[in-house]
Amino acid sequence: MSKSVLIVSRQAPWAGPGAREALDIALAGGAFDLPLGLLFLDDGVFQLAPAQQPAALQQKDLAANLQALPMFGVGALYASARSLQERGLQEATLGLPVEVLDDASLTALFDRYDQVITL
Amino acid sequence: MKFAIALFSPPHAPSSRRALRFAQAALDEGHEIVRLFLYQEGVHSASSHVVSPQDELNLTQEWQTFVSDNQLDGVVCIAAALRRGVLDGDEARRYSRDGANLQEPWSLSGLGQLHEAVQVADRLVSFGGA
Amino acid sequence: MATLHVLSHSPFSDSRLSSCLRLLGANDGVLLSGDAVYALQGGTAQHQALELMPSSIGLFALDEDISARNIEPPQRVQVVDYPGFVALTCRFAKVNSWL
C-alpha cells in the first residue's frame, strides 16, 4: 500500500521557481498514481488569486499547471482559511477548486498523511 | 530505519552542512539511507565547479566523499539542475554547453526518484531554506 | 501520528514559526536548528510563544546552533546533538521541515 504524501506550497507564484517546483513534485507523484494532497499555505495562496497576468513578467502561466492537477490524479487540494483571509483573498474567486480549512482542520490534515514536504 | 534525505539548499547554506552531518549520524547510528535527492538550490551541492577557500569548509567535496565512501544513491533532479546550470556530459552535449560540472558520483534523474525514495523509506527528512 | 517540525529560519524576519505554531498537534515536536534557535532568546515574544505551548509538545534545539549563538536554552528545551536529531526523527512518525 502506498504511503500518502502531503505537499505544502508556501511560495508566492512570481517569487522564483519555488511555486512551480512544488507543483512539479505534486504532478510527478500524480503521474505515478500516488496518494497525494496539495496544501496552499501562507503566500502560497497567492498562486490561487484570479486573473493573474504572468506574461507581464515573461513568466509561464502557473494556472494552467494548477488546472492539470486533477488530470494527474491530484484531487485533494486544500488552502488555509487564515492565509486567504490575511491576504484579502475570497474563496469564491479562487482560480482552483480547493477545500478551505481552518487551523484545527489543518492540524488534522497533517495528521492524516504519512509524509509531508513543505516548500 | 530507512531514510530518504532531500536537500533543497546550496552548499554555502548552513542547512546543506546540517543535512550532511545528519546523514553521517544516521549511518553511524546504524540506519540506512535509501537515497539522497537534490532539488531546487540543492543541485549546487553536486557541482564540481564550486571553489572553496583553503581555510573554509569544502562541502561539495565532503558530500562527494560521503556519497562515494558509503556507496549511496545520490540523485540530482534533472529539471532543477538544468535550470541552475548543473549539467552532466550528456546534457552538456545535448545543449551545446562547454563542459559538464556534475560531480561524480551524483547522477541526474527525475522527481520520480524522490517519490520512489519516499515510498521505500521509513522517514523522509528534508533540509533547505536557511 | 505525531510530527516533528524542523525550523531553521530566524523567527524575527520570517513567518514560518508562527505558521508552524498554529498547526501543531497535541503530541508534535518542534526542533529548532540554524537561526530558528533565536526563538529561544530571552525576553522575546517568540520565546514566550514557545513557552506557552502545551507541555505535551516536545521542544528541542540543535546543540551546535545554541553554542554558536551563545543562547541560554530555557529549561523546557531538550538540547540534542546529531545522533539525538536522528533519534528524534525515528521517534516521531514523520518529519516536517519548514524549508
What does this protein look like?
Chain A contains four helices and five strands; from the N terminus they run βαβαβαβαβ. Chain A has 119 residues and is α/β, with parallel strands linked by helices. Chain A has one domain (5-118): Hypothetical Protein Ychn, Chain: A (3-Layer(aba) Sandwich), CATH 3.40.1260.10. The longest helix of chain A has 14 residues, at 18-31. Chain B has helices spanning 14-28, 59-69, 78-84, 89-94, 112-120, and strands at 2-7, 32-38, 74-77, 107-109, 123-127. With 130 residues, chain B is an alpha/beta fold. In chain B, strands 4-3-2-1-5 form a five-stranded parallel β-sheet, with helices on both faces. Chain B has one domain (2-127): Hypothetical Protein Ychn, Chain: A. The mean pLDDT of chain B is 97. Chain C has 99 residues and is an alpha/beta fold. Chain C has a single domain, classed as 3-Layer(aba) Sandwich (Hypothetical Protein Ychn, Chain: A). Helices cover 31% and strands 21% of the residues of chain C. In chain C, strands 4-3-2-1-5 form a five-stranded parallel β-sheet, sandwiched between helices. In chain C, strand 3 (58-62), helix 3 (63-68) and strand 4 (78-80) form a beta-alpha-beta unit. The longest helix of chain C is centred in the last third of the chain and has 10 residues, at 82-91. Chains A and C meet through helix 4 and strand 5 of A and helix 1 and strand 5 of C.
